[in-house]
Write a structure and sequence with these properties.
This protein is of the alpha/beta class. It contains ten helices and ten strands. A ten-stranded mixed sheet has the order 2-1-4-3-5-10-9-6-7-8, sandwiched between helices.
Length: 348
Amino acid sequence: MFKFLSGGVRVGVTLSRSAVRGSAGLSTHAGPHQQLNKPLTSDELLRSGGIASFMRLPVQSNTTGLDVCFVGVPLDVGTSNRSGTRLGPRQIRCESVLLRPCNTTTGAAPYRSLNIADVGDISFNTYNLPEACQHIREGYAELIANSCIPLTMGGDHTITYPILQAIKAKRGPVGLVHVDAHSDVSGSMLGAKIYHGAPFRLALEEGLIDPHATIQIGLRGTQHSEEGHTWQLNQGFRVVTAEECWYTSLKPLMEEVRTWMGDKPVYLSFDIDAIDPGFCPGTGTPEIGGLTTVQALEIVRGCKGLNLVGCDLVEVSPPYDFEGTTALTAANLLFEMLCVLPGVKYNE
């Protein structure tokens, strides 16, 4: 049995492994006669009302019958500077009430295509980071047992490591689209191997990702050594620095990424600090000279056609997000991630 939290509040439900496994035969796409979950609209309930679920979707205690789930991981004990990302999932949910279900720009109609719900937050031991990662891995193994695609609200970037562990056990090594100001491939710090600056080194060491199908976009800022990005490049990663993104559209880059990845399973990990702090100040390790929100949209929308098996949006720190702009941007990007998942239909 694995406990989850719903909307940041313990509701006393547990997720049974046997219950999830019992749904493993479900189609990963909604059938023509299946009644799909829909977000509440402002006609049904004022935006200021309702529980704090993503877009005010129904809340489930497991992924039975779901194609996609929104899930929170309120962890920040892996941070190296400013904490506060444990409050990220709740604030992203609160800001998501401004979103509407139709993506009129791209034509994506996710709520007419897939069955989606918010499954609350994973519970873990916040006083023991390695044990917390074990709990997260176990929780995600249950969530994806029926091939449900998780869209994760972080939480610091440590959480991507145990998520990828669970995904590898289900699907094998994945390609990676990593959007971030930082490479997150550092070695141990103060004797600790697990923290938010190391998830992708750990992922590579454990064979969770394919290094020759890994791209890092938006890297910038000062570093501890003169080595720069040599380590990742030597492993086979492709690195696109922030300076390479200045003054340009990223649509051509994403066309290359789609061709490069082919039909292999791909995971998208988006650290909100990839975006310039002038747009998104609410994060623990801000770096100037970052991506614009338009470029962020180009990257996520450019993932349409990839075989995405999971996505996360991490490092939103509400204590430094005084107007809620960072969490609102995160909510919008998570919706855009939903819109590019396999199986989403598009309006003509």
